[in-house]
Design brief:
872 residues; alpha+beta; Phosphorylase Kinase, domain 1; Transferase(Phosphotransferase), domain 1; Rossmann fold; 6-stranded antiparallel sheet; globular
């Protein structure tokens, strides 16, 4: 959609998406103004109810003219696409504002007052919003609150599109009557506004739970917990307002928004709110004198700021226990005493026990990837304990007896060992039918916790005692699928894993973990371009939804949904929400911590990503991959000493893996511009560079070009077996690289020929993938080489419109770098310097030393700004 013109609106960028539409920023070419366009999703166009609800939203909101409601300009249909044009609101959502911490009393009350005034306007027109929540409130730079998204609104005189007994909206902000699917009136909006007020004031929601049903239970049966015990007149006023907004019975709430507005204005002017005058207890009905708390909020805000420095949080929805207080445990691979072909079964059972133990917050559990490295090594317990930094080790054996004339039987012999003195704290022999395997896994996890003096809480017990399926054939397929999924990200392993997941689901269509693994595999195949199709994307989504429907209280479905949001949609907020739920259910999952870090890098939150990667490495200390990712993050931040330390560690852990050598070579270039040191690193790769593939050969090509040995660079390209050098970040046709080398050699005719060949290739690929920013970025470079200045600049800018820094802070800098190269090639030196100077202020794949060494910037040499930049 980006770059297209619909009716008289030119699409500029995607702003967000939800169940009822995708919103784009656009330029109104008739009136020369920026607008927001909300489109009905194509897959819902054929749904009459969805289409009617979409039209209803426009009609409902367009009837309202109020400074606290987003203005609707028109509803239209073009190119078979139905859309609403509305005012484009600059600023941030209230959801994002709350993430920074609780708001001050005056600011929170002021926002609630504005929203209440907007709702009063809607209610007077017979319109109920039904989805008031922070994500639907925009705050402008001047502090104006704007109500957005009337997609679930209900108007007088318009038939309700929901059926009796169904619910719409976001559960955490629903009124009790809305969660039950009862008929609702304007007082449901007052409840939701009260929930939002509470969240602004405290930084947390009044009704919480580990999964949706638990939140609903809290809304229906529990009173919100007062945040503190402080007591003053100001707090009494706030308390009384919240008390009345959050009454379970609608008749006990404010009868209208006008009454709520009166109390809010009374609070802001220092007079006593109406609720206090009428004698409402402001939470005191539950626990005596517990209603006054605003002063306490101020204290918490200060303490929270300090805590943010001392103990950074992993996720917005979770908190980390100090590592020092946890007992650390490693589950070593259980030894398979049966047939060799049963290895996957023993490994799978080990992983399942590890996963159950990882759900215990007081226990730090070493990740599978580190523990599996001790399989068949013969190392003794003290050595393993020291290498992993653990105080306890769980090991054991498994024998699977396949019976031809009856149910198969298994024998499992676990033993828990204290590392310090090799004492066996607990051991047992389980002999049973294979149908009891889940009970054995649960019992082992429970006995380990008991032996370590850990009492399982309700949610922890739920994870430990989970029984994923009653179909043992399905479970067998699932363990096999896990085995292949863990082998590599390669297309063959992932396709095999997917086929085995499908087999598991055929055996048991209610097997949530199999659906989750199916979704994860589909998302991974989409992300790594194994199958980047709408079909794969949809399969990832529907599989994750099915898994969540079946097991909302299990971590795997939330992890799968998080990866769907991340890998398929680049929807970072929802991804972090899902990863947060998975983290709550399984606090010691290194993969979840890494997943959060990867998303934070895309958001530009590199320092936060470092902290989560470091905690992930604590749980997975022998993972070369996690160390490699830490090194890459430090490199983006230009923290080269730390990056080198992690790369050396990754090389020591897995010396045959070539990529850390490549990163270390690149590190030398960025750190000092030293190509000789970079080549020396690459010479240490076991097996030689011919074993490393095209990406590392491309690095050698870069070193040749930096040394201005263009003939050697051309010779390097001639040995390439691929038409392109590409990854997630860039696409370089080898013909385009040849064009650049011939250009540097002054052979303009040959350069033109190869540039034009690259142009044909890139334009052809763009036809099938018009939204791929990498292709447009490289096409801009090729156009620049061909002397097509206007086309080159257009493509370079388009790549950043398709993938701006705000959407992907890891990949977008490559496009920004290419735009600087384009400007340099076409003679726009000041514009090139604008990009280079900006790149050096953000985490980016470039440094002053590297710029100083690279020939692509030769035209800028002597430019005052360039000389200053490379000297800094």
């Amino acid at each position: 959609m980006i770059g297209k013109t619909i009716s008289h609106y030119k699409i500029l960028e995607e702003l967000g998406k939800g169940g009822m539409g995708v919103v784009y920023k656009a330029q109104d070419t008739k009136l020369d103004r920026t607008v927001a366009l909300k489109f009905l999703p194509p897959d819902l166009t054929a749904d009459p109810d969805a289409k009617q609800r979409f039209i209803h939203e426009a009609r409902a909101a367009s009837a309202l003219d109020h400074p606290n409601i987003c203005t609707i300009y028109e509803i239209n249909e073009a190119d078979d696409q139905l859309f609403i044009a509305m005012a484009y609101i600059e600023g941030q959502t209230l959801k994002d504002k709350i993430k920074a911490g609780p708001l001050g009393a005056d600011e929170a009350a002021g926002i609630v007052l504005q929203v209440a005034e907007g709702l009063q306007e809607a209610h007077e027109h017979g319109i109920i919003h039904r989805d008031i929540k922070p994500a639907n409130i925009m705050i402008t730079p001047k502090g104006r609150a704007k109500i957005m998204d009337f997609g679930l609104a209900k108007s007088g005189g318009v038939p309700d599109l929901t059926q009796e007994g169904t619910t719409l909206g976001t559960v955490a902000y629903m009124s009790p009557e809305q969660t039950r699917g009862d008929e609702v009136d304007h007082r449901t909006d007052i409840w939701s506004l009260g929930v939002m007020f509470y969240e602004m004031a405290t930084g947390r929601r009044p009704f919480r739970g580990d999964y949706e049903q638990a939140v609903v239970y809290s809304i229906l049966n529990e009173d919100p917990e007062p945040p503190g015990d402080a007591h003053d007149e100001e707090a009494m006023g706030i308390d009384s307002i919240l008390e009345r907004c959050l009454k379970k019975a609608p008749a006990e709430r404010y009868p209208a928004a006008t009454d709520l507005i009166a109390d809010l204005r009374a609070f802001s002017t220092g007079t006593t709110p109406f609720s206090s005058r009428t004698g409402l207890g402001a939470f005191e009905t539950r626990a005596g004198r517990r209603g006054a708390w605003w002063t306490w909020i101020g204290v918490v805000a200060v303490l929270g700021a300090a805590a943010a420095i001392i103990l950074p949080r992993v996720l917005s929805t979770t908190r980390d226990e100090p590592v020092a207080e946890r007992k650390m445990l490693a589950v070593l691979p259980f030894e398979n005493l049966g047939a060799p072909e049963d290895d996957y079964f023993a490994d799978g059972i080990t992983e399942e026990i590890t996963a159950r133990l990882a759900g215990i917050r007081e226990l730090g559990v070493i990740a599978r990837t580190s523990a599996m490295q001790y399989k068949d090594t013969g190392k003794v317990i003290p050595v393993i304990g020291q290498e992993l930094g653990v105080g306890y080790i769980l090991e054991g054996t498994i024998r699977w007896q396949h019976m031809a004339d009856g149910p198969s039987r298994i024998r499992v012999t676990p033993q828990l060992i204290r590392v310090s003195d090799a004492t066996h704290l607990w051991a047992h022999v389980y002999q049973m039918d294979i149908s009891d395997i889940f009970q054995v896994q649960s019992d082992i996890a429970g006995k380990v916790a008991e032996a370590l003096g850990i009492t399982l809480l309700g949610l922890e017990r739920q994870v430990v005692e989970a029984r994923p399926t009653d179909n043992l054939k399905a479970y067998d397929y699932y363990l096999r699928a896990q085995d292949y999924a863990n082998r590599s990200y390669g297309v063959d392993d992932q396709r095999t894993a997917l086929a085995l997941c499908n087999s598991a689901i055929e055996q048991d269509s209610t097997f949530a973990e199999a659906w989750a693994l199916r979704s994860h595999t589909r998302s991974l195949m989409y992300w790594f371009d194994h199958e980047r199709t709408p079909k794969a994307q949809d399969a990832a989504r529907t599989s994750a939804i099915r898994a969540l429907e079946l097991a909302p209280g299990a971590p795997e479905p939330h992890l799968a949904m998080g990866y769907y949001y991340y890998w398929c949609l680049l929807d970072y907020d929802n991804a972090l929400d899902e990863f947060g739920r998975a983290r709550e259910l399984q606090p010691n999952n290194a993969e979840t911590l890494s997943a959060v870090a990867y998303v934070q890098r895309r958001q530009g939150r590199f320092e936060a990503a470092l902290k989560n990667l470091e905690m992930s490495l604590d749980l997975d200390p022998l993972s070369w991959l996690r160390g490699y990712e830490l090194a890459g993050t430090h490199m983006s931040l230009r923290q080269y000493e730390e990056a080198e330390r992690h790369l050396d560690r990754a090389i020591a852990l897995r010396p045959e893996w070539p990529f850390p050598y490549g990163w270390k070579a690149l590190l030398n270039v960025r750190w000092t511009g030293d190509t000789a040191a970079a080549r020396a690193v690459l010479k240490k790769i076991p097996g030689g560079l011919e074993m490393t593939g095209d990406l590392l050969s491309f690095l050698l090509f870069q070193l040749d070009s930096m040394d201005r040995d263009y003939e050697a660079a051309l010779e390097r390209l001639s040995s390439s077996t691929e038409e392109t050098i590409e990854n997630h970040y860039l696409v370089y046709p080898t013909s385009g690289l040849r064009g650049w080398m011939y250009d540097r050699l002054g052979k303009k005719d040959l350069a033109f020929t190869y540039y034009d060949s690259a142009r044909v290739y890139l334009e052809s690929r763009i036809e099938s993938r018009p939204d791929d920013a990498r292709l447009h970025s490289t096409l801009g470079l090729v156009y620049a080489g061909l002397g097509r200045k206007q086309d080159a600049v257009r493509e370079g800018r388009l790549s950043l419109e398709l993938l701006p820094l705000s959407k992907d802070a890891s990949r977008a800098p490559y496009n920004l770098l290419h735009l600087a190269w384009i400007y340099t090639t076409v003679g726009e030196y000041d514009l090139a310097m604008d990009q280079l100077e900006h790149l050096l202020t953000i985490p980016a794949p470039i440094s002053a030393a590297q710029i100083r060494a690279e020939p692509r910037w030769d035209p800028l040499r002597g430019h005052e700004r360039f000389e200053k930049l490379i000297q800094d």
